[in-house]
Design goal:
With 487 residues, this protein is mainly α. The relative contact order is 0.08. The chain folds into 2 domains: 388 residues, no CATH class; 67 residues. The two termini are 16 Å apart. It has 21 helices and no strands.
């Protein structure tokens, strides 16, 4: 079954064309950022044409134990620049070769996916260097990240998101969203700063311009991240459209994309604040507490979930553009608010709470960081609850239809248990208490196979009938029913 799925994904013309369009859009936006950076005002006499070629200051270069890794991280946009140029050239040559030689559809599709890798994977160099250079921090962030990923996988039993889709979403967030966001923003920072801080401005004006630059860069990063997350969710919804795709599907995929981004961002910020804690006024341990503990489901995880749910709803709405735009604005606005409002609220309470005290660390700072996100998180929870209710209705109807066929895969006695998450849980728990762990696991596998069979029936796709027959045979084997030699 998995072999046919991956072959279908490889030969899916619609998905291939959409993925190529996304890659072209990402490259076009990168070239626009490069053009803006090239035409910016120069603030220093020896400033390079592209800001990404600026060298690390000598004061930082002399710092023991951190300067080497920091220099490698900061130099990644330069490596991305040359890799993207090489990828563009190679991708054009491959597509010209396909067009001239008129390759068979299957080989042309494979070459197109190779082109996509050449165009997008260079941006993944940035997060890869981060997680490798700061590997101890990466290991520290893995357990909590794996917990959320398993929660997304196991939180929904009926018509759950395939594991391959969940891992692809996480990889898109960790490699593409983080890499593109940092590549774009590293160019945009110098561009905005160059236009806002003309040479000859006094020190006070220069300082105000720096704060304005930072504010605009935060907005820029929020918008860019929302666009790239949306692109990944749309592509995954298209690739896995043979599954049930609704608001819950989009929410799960969006949360997984946001989780991948938050994972790499946490590694970077924990290391930076751990090394420059005296300068920034915080520590790596505090950043771990905020990002990988109390705020684990906040940040881009929450905004990605909201964006994914909105895009899935837009696919079935009458005014698709309006719903999709509202989801993008909510995600980008929420991410910007989380960065700016939390800092402003913290500055307002600076004199009332001792910075670094137990009250500040355990209560005040986490609350101030989460407060701007709470309306967006509440909206995501509402969409999840409504989506699960809609799925419950579809589950009951599809289960009744399967029972009506007279197939022993799902019997009338099993129907009330199968459609109720509570009854399914207690059935497995009571089986474990009475007959042992192996019997409980066997019942869990049986219920999972029955739910997958029912989810196929929800889609009402005749092309999925062979998979349904395989699932029925598997269910009968789990029940201990002999299906005959031909099965």
């Amino acid at each position: 079954m998995n072999g046919r799925v991956f072959q279908a994904l490889r030969d899916d013309r619609a998905a291939t064309a959409r993925a190529l369009l996304i890659a072209r859009g990402a490259i076009a936006l990168y070239l626009v950022e490069l053009l803006g950076n090239l035409t910016r005002h120069r603030l220093l006499p020896d400033e390079p044409a592209l800001s990404i070629f600026y060298k690390l200051p000598s004061e930082l270069a002399g710092m023991p134990g951190f300067s080497g890794s920091l220099d490698r991280v900061l130099s990644m946009p330069r490596a991305v620049f040359w890799s993207v140029l090489a990828g563009i050239v190679a991708g054009v040559l491959i597509q010209v070769f396909v067009a001239v030689t008129r390759q068979p559809d299957r080989r042309a599709a494979v070459l197109t996916w190779v082109t996509l890798g050449l165009l997008l994977l260079p941006f993944g160099l940035i997060p890869l260097v981060v997680v490798v250079e700061y590997f101890p921090v990466t290991l520290a962030c893995l357990p909590s990240t794996a917990f959320v990923l398993l929660l997304l996988r196991a939180g929904v039993r009926f018509a759950r998101v395939p594991l391959a889709a969940l891992l692809a979403a996480f990889g898109w967030g960790a490699l593409i969203v983080f890499g593109l966001g940092r590549a774009y923003t590293s160019l945009a920072f110098a561009t905005i700063n160059g236009y806002l801080s003309p040479s000859g401005s006094d020190l006070g004006q220069f300082t105000r311009n720096q704060f304005r630059t930072i504010d605009l860069v935060i907005v820029h990063l929020g918008v860019v991240n929302a666009l790239v997350i949306a692109a990944g969710v749309l592509l995954l919804l298209l690739l896995f459209r043979y599954r049930v795709t609704d608001a819950v599907t989009g929410l799960t995929l969006g949360a997984a994309v946001g989780l991948g981004y938050s994972f790499v961002e946490s590694v970077l910020f924990i290391k930076i604040y751990g090394s420059f804690g005296s300068f920034f006024g915080t520590t790596g341990g505090f950043e771990y507490w905020i990002r990988q503990s109390v705020g684990l489901l906040g940040g881009q995880v929450a905004f990605g979930a909201l964006l994914g749910a909105g895009l899935a709803l837009a696919a079935r709405a009458r005014r698709r553009a309006l719903v999709a735009t509202a989801a993008l604005v909510a995600a980008a606005g929420g991410a910007t608010a989380a960065e700016t409002l939390s800092g402003w609220l913290s500055s307002q309470l600076r004199d009332q709470v001792d910075t670094g005290s137990a009250l500040d660390t355990l209560v005040v700072s986490p609350l101030l960081w989460l407060l701007p996100q709470l309306p967006f998180m509440a909206l995501a929870v509402v969409l999840l609850v409504l989506g699960l209710r809609e799925r419950g209705t579809a589950l009951r109807a599809a289960t009744a239809a399967e029972v009506a066929t007279g197939s022993p895969a799902v019997t009338r006695a099993e129907e009330p248990v199968l459609v109720s998450p509570t009854l399914r849980f207690w059935a497995v728990a009571s089986t474990g208490r009475r007959y042992g762990r192996q019997a409980a696991l066997r019942l869990h596998r049986l219920q999972s196979a029955q739910l997958e069979l029912v989810s196929l029936r929800v889609q009402e796709d005749p092309d999925l009938e062979p998979q349904g027959d395989e699932l029925r045979a598997r269910i009968l084997r789990l029940k201990g029913v002999r299906t005959g030699a031909g099965s």
